[in-house]
């Protein structure tokens, strides 16, 4: 079957915007990246359930308007992400969710987008609590005067943004970045950057912030700052743990049916 011209590629329609958002259209110049993004979304979204077979190459070529080479490279990338496995005589089969690489940016992004029960976001917050509490404790023993001054500047920026939830969220994230950097835990910081960055793409993660809620958040950040200034590792860890848990509980929406 001849390959349709590139200008006729028929990418599957993205999900409606809704509360979970649409599949991002990746402008990387590589058709394979776009094919992978859509196939990941279908697998994570349940269109291709565990142990089901992906459509054969010819079908995917026709649907996406790409060559067999592009399809093969895309399937290989799916294998590297832990989503599928080539089974001799059975085609390419979808693996169980526990085998997926959730730290892969494309997979995690799709998981967050399809998280109707909020289980992934709940788990993400649990990981944040564990890692950031530990990093806050480490930071208490390592933080420099310069880093403390930067935290004070961030607290001021957060106070000035109390009526602007979008800006406040950005300043809030910067505050946490300084503490993570002060901890010296580069791996923990990289993990938090990855998972938190993908969570922030979801409208469900942000909820509906109010001025009073942001003011409470600011007070918690000021408490953490003071504990760090006093080199109180246990106190800083406990305050960080309480802050992240309370903030999520206050804005966590009801799961969708």
Report on the structure:
With 257 residues, the chain is mainly α. It has two domains: 6-100, Orthogonal Bundle (Arc Repressor Mutant, subunit A); 115-251, Four Helix Bundle (Hemerythrin (Met), subunit A) (Up-down Bundle). The chain has helices at residues 31-45, 57-64, 68-80, 105-113, 119-142, 145-160, 165-183, 186-199, 203-206, 211-229, 233-251, and strands at residues 84-87, 91-94. It has a two-stranded antiparallel ribbon. Strand 1 and strand 2 (91-94) form a beta hairpin. Helix 5 (119-142) runs parallel beside helix 10 (211-229), helix 6 (145-160) packs antiparallel against helix 7 and helix 6 runs antiparallel to helix 10 (211-229). Mean pLDDT is 88; it is low at 1-29.
Summarize the structure.
The protein has 257 residues and is mainly α.
Q: What's the layout of helices and strands?
A:
Layout: H1 31-45, H2 57-64, H3 68-80, E1 84-87, E2 91-94, H4 105-113, H5 119-142, H6 145-160, H7 165-183, H8 186-199, H9 203-206, H10 211-229, H11 233-251
Tags for this entry?
single chain; 257 residues; mainly alpha; Arc Repressor Mutant, subunit A; Four Helix Bundle (Hemerythrin (Met), subunit A); two-stranded antiparallel sheet; 3% strand; disordered N terminus
Uncertain residue segments: 1-29
Q: What fold name goes in the CATH topology slot of the largest domain? A: Four Helix Bundle (Hemerythrin (Met), subunit A)
Distance between the termini: 42 Å
The helicity comes to 55-70%
Number of strands: 2
């Amino acid at each position: 079957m001849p390959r349709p011209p590139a200008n006729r590629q028929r990418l599957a329609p993205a999900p409606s915007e809704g509360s979970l958002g649409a599949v991002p259209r990746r402008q990387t110049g590589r058709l394979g990246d776009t094919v992978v993004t859509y196939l990941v979304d279908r697998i994570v979204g349940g269109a291709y359930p565990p142990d089901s077979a992906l459509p054969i190459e010819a079908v995917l070529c026709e649907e996406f308007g790409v060559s067999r080479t592009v399809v093969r490279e895309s399937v290989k990338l799916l294998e590297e992400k832990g989503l599928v496995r080539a089974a001799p005589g059975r085609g390419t089969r979808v693996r169980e969710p526990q085998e997926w690489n959730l730290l892969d940016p494309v997979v995690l992004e799709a998981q967050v987008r399809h998280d109707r029960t909020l289980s992934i976001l709940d788990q993400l917050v649990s990981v944040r609590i564990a890692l950031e509490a530990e990093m806050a404790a480490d930071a208490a023993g390592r933080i420099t005067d310069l880093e403390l001054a930067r935290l004070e500047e961030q607290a001021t920026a957060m106070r000035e943004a109390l009526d602007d939830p979008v800006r406040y969220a950005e300043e809030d994230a910067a505050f946490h970045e300084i503490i993570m950097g002060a901890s010296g835990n580069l791996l923990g910081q990289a993990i938090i950057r990855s998972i938190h960055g993908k969570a922030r793409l979801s409208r469900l993660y942000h909820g509906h912030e109010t001025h009073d809620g942001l003011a409470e958040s600011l007070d918690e950040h000021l408490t953490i700052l003071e504990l760090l200034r006093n080199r109180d590792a246990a106190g800083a860890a406990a305050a960080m743990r309480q802050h992240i848990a309370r903030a999520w509980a206050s804005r966590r929406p009801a799961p969708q049916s």
